[in-house]
Design brief:
The protein has helices spanning 6-12, 22-27, 41-44, 46-59, 73-78, 83-107, 124-128, 142-157, 172-182, 208-212, 234-244, 275-285, 298-309, and strands spanning 15-16, 63-65, 116-121, 163-169, 190-194, 221-227, 248-252, 258-260, 265-267, 289-290. The two termini are 21 Å apart. It has 310 residues and is α/β, with parallel strands linked by helices. The protein is 43% helix and 14% strand. The protein contains 13 helices and ten strands. It has a single domain (3-309), classed as TIM Barrel, CATH 3.20.20.330. Helix 8 crosses helix 9.
Length: 310
């Protein structure tokens, strides 16, 4: 059992993660039709980001993830932000999560373990804002991907978060780049979560079994799993991860819709069973960190907690 997650697992059997950030911001009226996506609100309306964190904590999330998924030096530079401002905004993403946690703890003395903060490290594809995190067709080497991620990982690792959430990774080369970079930050822990297109393959087409095993030799990787993946594929993917990985297994899929990167909207996906029922299936398959990604809500997280921790 990972020591960082041990109090939550003892309490509930699993660690309850939060859900979507961007789609929740949109529910509150935010316009995220922009290359920076949710990171856009780090300048425009940071208090709304904090509110979403609060909503997830009040729903029972043990881990909240910062609004830094689409925050990168390249992405900010394309919008005219200087490097110093980009660093400031990345640090702000973590500070907002810390403030939300402090506020909840101040009003709820009965809460047991201190909720954790995961600093989101989105994939290279997120900086392109073209949906390539669901394809993995970067055409970049491991070294080039390390160059892209290195400085932002350094900033986020020093921002006060408890660990890094390297998420929506669509190709093995990017996972290897991230695992290599962790060696340069020996005191930093992380999870690595892949975006998958079916029951056995990540979005690039690589076998999930091979990708899930990549971090087995890394003492810094706490968990391995899937996110922003259609929920009907997750139980199979969790079973694969359990069979090939020596890490905790995490699952936080989307609601099953398909992202249309050209028109920047969600389209109906395949029919699947009830999300909460499926979450119980992921737990039964061996996942120990469970939550949601795009289109999920604080109400979903509340219901997952009630169903699994009852």
């Amino acid at each position: 059992m990972v020591k960082l997650f041990e109090p939550f697992i003892k309490n509930c059997g699993v660690v309850i993660l939060d859900g979507a950030m961007a789609t929740e911001l949109e529910k509150h009226g935010a316009d995220l039709n922009h290359a920076l996506w949710s990171a856009k609100l780090l300048t425009e309306n940071p208090s709304l980001i904090k509110q979403v964190h609060l909503d997830y904590l009040k729903a029972g999330a043990d881990v909240i993830t910062t609004a830094s998924y689409q925050a990168s030096f390249d992405g900010f530079a394309k919008q005219g932000y200087a490097k110093e401002k980009a660093i400031e905004l990345m640090q702000l993403a973590t500070r907002l999560a810390i403030e939300a946690r402090d506020e909840v703890l101040g009003s709820d003395s009965s809460r047991g373990s201190l909720p954790l903060i995961a600093a989101s490290v989105g994939p290279y594809g997120a900086s392109r804002a073209d949906g390539s995190e669901y394809r993995g067709d970067y055409g970049l080497s491991i070294e080039e991907l390390m160059l892209f991620h290195r400085e932002r990982m350094n900033v986020l690792a020093a921002s006060g978060a408890d660990f890094l959430a390297c998420e929506t990774i669509p190709c093995p080369e990017e996972a290897i780049a991230l695992i290599n970079l962790l060696k340069e930050l020996p005191d930093v822990k992380a999870w690595i979560s892949y975006s998958c297109k079916n029951e056995t393959s990540i979005c690039s087409g690589a076998a999930f079994a091979e990708c899930a095993a990549l971090a087995n030799d890394s003492k810094q990787v706490l968990a391995i799993g899937v996110n922003c993946t259609p929920p009907q594929f997750v139980e199979s993917l969790v079973q694969i991860a359990v069979s090939v990985s020596n890490k905790a297994v995490l699952a936080y899929p989307n609601k099953g819709e398909i992202w249309d990167a050209q028109n920047k909207c969600w389209l109906p996906g395949a029919v699947h069973t009830d999300f909460i029922t499926e979450a119980i299936g992921w737990r039964n398959a061996g996942a120990t960190l469970i939550g949601g990604c795009c289109r999920t809500s604080p109400e979903d997280i509340k219901q997952i907690r009630q169903a699994i921790c009852a």
